[in-house]
Amino acid sequence: MGQVKLTKxxxxxxxxxxxxxxxxxxxxxxxxxxxxxxxxxQATLLSEKNHTLDKKKEATLTWxxxxxxxxxxxxxxxxxxxxxxxxxxxxxxxxSVFKDAAFDEAKYDLFTTPLWIDHAVEALRLxxxxxxxIEVLEKGLLTLKNELRITTQRVNLFEKIKIPQAQKAIxxxxxxxxxxxxxxxxxxxxxxxxxxxxxxxxxxxx
Length: 206
Known about the structure:
There is one protein chain. By secondary structure, the protein is mainly alpha-helical. The protein has two helices and two strands, in the order αββα.
């Protein structure tokens, strides 16, 4: 805290600032709480999606060796043509939410292509969709954690610095003004006493 002006004007300014801080702090605290709850929820969801992805990958082990057969290349059929997301607002923070992954139609010769291809394409597309959803969740978590960090810094700024500084400044100014008023009253009494003494002296001299 810099040098505080010990004036009534500064007292009013500090009181106004304190009111603003105390009015804004609960909003920040609520935002912090909402972000913490959402981060916990998103982290749980991310863990579940990763677990599901691991299970889906394990399920492909029984037939994944077939993908190495000559002439088999499913890459073009499992690359998403479009990723669709929506947005939701969490305590003033825009968060992307995965909706779906779209794929172009897989076109191949039904007579020359192995029967297991349909199942493989479907399974791999599901894995890719999960991977894209996980990417969106991870980015969202980073966004939320960054916003929580900033909000926490602001809460600490108000709680530990701004409000205590304003309270201290108000206390110092009130003490100073109180002392000044006491001194003024004292000086007034002394001046009044001198005036009375002078009047008594003048009457006695007549």
